[in-house]
Amino acid sequence: MSCVEASAHMASYPSMAPIDTYLSQTAVDEIGLARSAGPPSISNDAEILTLGVHGYSPAVKGRNGFACIVERAWSMAFDDPEFWNPRVRAPICFNAAATRSVLPEYLMRTKWALSGASRSKMVSLVKAAVASHEITAPEFGSMCYMMSKRGYLGDDVGGPWHPHLMFFLPRMAANQWGANLPGSPVMAGVKRFEPTTVFLVPIAKWSDGSADGRQQP
Questions:
Q1: 22: which of 4, 57, 175, 182 lies 20 to 30 Å off by Cα?
Q2: pLDDT confidence bin for 11, thresholds 50/70/90
């Protein structure tokens, strides 16, 4: 993407859109999309949280420690040009460790976004939360499933990406997992402000059991 194209892309989402454009038409729609993040053997017994005008709230009580939600674009890096894209729907199902130590930060971001905080304000809030240890490194064993082929992960993807697993660890170099190296199936990103590295591993099938059918990245 050229600098001109990047600038035009950024201009498409310069600020938050009306809140109702980020909401699902019904709670049933949101619950179904959230469940599609993981295999039914996991997501059918997971807690489901749905987004409302003030943030996420429990919609279905869970029994296995997992929690499934549909993330919006403000889960992205703060400098991502699609940070306010109202079309983004990213079904994700956290295990118990990630529900305790990773999900809370996203719920914080959501409340800030829905309260009208700008990106720069949210950056300040994240820095303060890290300094006060309200945001901490992920708990050992934190991971999630992102296996929904019904999601929309951004305009650059145009729909879902590939079914994949994500593992959340305290900040470390990507090469400690052999990530981001030629031929490695593991990708990684280090969060800029939070003490977290996210490792990502594509897998072969979607949550409904169908094959991905596309060339793996």
A1: 4
A2: very low
pLDDT in tens, 163-174: 999 999 999 999
User: What is the DSSP track for the chain?
Assistant: --HHHHHHHHHTSSSPPPGGGGS-S-HHHHHHHHHTTS-HHHHTTSEEEEEETTEEEEEE--SSS-EEEEE-GGGS-TT-TTTT-TT-BEEEEE-HHHHHHTHHHHHHHHHHHHTT--HHHHHHHHHHHHHTTSS-PPPTT-EEEE--SS-B--TTTTS----EEEEEEES--GGGGTTTSTT-S-EEEE-SSSSEEEEEEE-SB-TTS-B--S---
Q: How far is CA 173 from the centre of its chain?
A: 21
Max Cα–Cα distance, the chain, nearest Å:
50
Choice among 4-13, 120-129, 197-206 with the minimum mean pLDDT: 4-13
The structure's pTM equals 0.91
Taking the C-alpha atoms of residue 190 and residue 168, their distance in angstroms, rounded to an integer, is: 10
Contact (Cβ atoms closer than 8 angstroms) between residue 168 and residue 198: yes
Residues 73-103 have pLDDT tens digits of 999 999 999 999 999 999 999 999 999 999 9
